[in-house]
Amino acid sequence: MQILPFYLLCDESGSMAGDNVDALNTTLPELHHEISTNPTVADKTRFCLIGFSTEANVLQPLVDLSDIEEVPALAAGGLTSFGNAFRTLLRCIETDVAALKAEGHEVYRPVAFFMSDGIPTDDDWPQAYKELTESRFCPKIIAFGVGDAEESTIAQVANFRAFIQQDSNVSPAAALREFASSLTRSIVRSASSIAADGGSDFTLSVEETVPGFATVSLDKL
User: Fold this and answer.
1) pTM exceeds 0.90
2) Which of 69, 80, 103, 220 sits CB 3.0–4.6 Å from 13 for a disulfide?
3) Hey, where are the domains in the chain?
4) Up-side HSE of residue 16: CA atoms within 13 Å toward CB?
5) Under CATH, domain 2-197+209-220 is a member of which superfamily?
6) Which ranges carry the VWFA domain (predicted)?
7) CA nearest neighbour of 12 among 47, 50, 48
8) Distance between terminal CA atoms of the chain?
9) pLDDT (tens digit, 9 = 90+) per residue, 66-93?
10) Pairing relation of β-strands 45-52 and 56-63?
11) Distances from the Cα of 35 to the Cαs of 29, 66, 183, in angstroms?
């Protein structure tokens, strides 16, 4: 079986306390429902949730979403720190890909959804990011900036899509909800195409616009 691993890295810094974390904790179960109840999608994906601030914790190890009864909730505390998030992500991907291949699966390049509402306080995070992106396990990274996040930083993190909050009235949960919907649609389309022509190529086609968010050009790097 061909598996797409996807990882959610969500900022749990103190500035996320209140509405931001509450909104994401409301949306995570929606993502769980949307993916896990679509057999075509559930069979082809695995999901991991990483919460990060000063430390990074794997709140939900990579698993079939249909096997999760309750998605872990995000908390808020500590400072905004990116380095541990990228190091944890790389370690997880290396372990997860090896395990999936050992089970006889083919593994698509992972997708990582990254959301932060602040400016990183750890100056050495670019080195951790470099190690991640230069690894043969480098995921396609979709980065969202909310709150005080800087456009240039979000562009630096993303290698596939980058978005920055434009409308302060739009909850960050809207980004996660849109991501879940577009990812689901993309997997369904790809699975249908594969079934129709007997091929095996998977194409990820996440939308280039998200309501309430401005698309950040990666060319600005």
Assistant:
1) no
2) 80
3) 2-197+209-220
4) 30
5) von Willebrand factor, type A domain (3.40.50.410)
6) 5-183
7) 50
8) 37
9) 888 888 988 888 899 999 999 999 999 9
10) antiparallel
11) 10, 8, 9
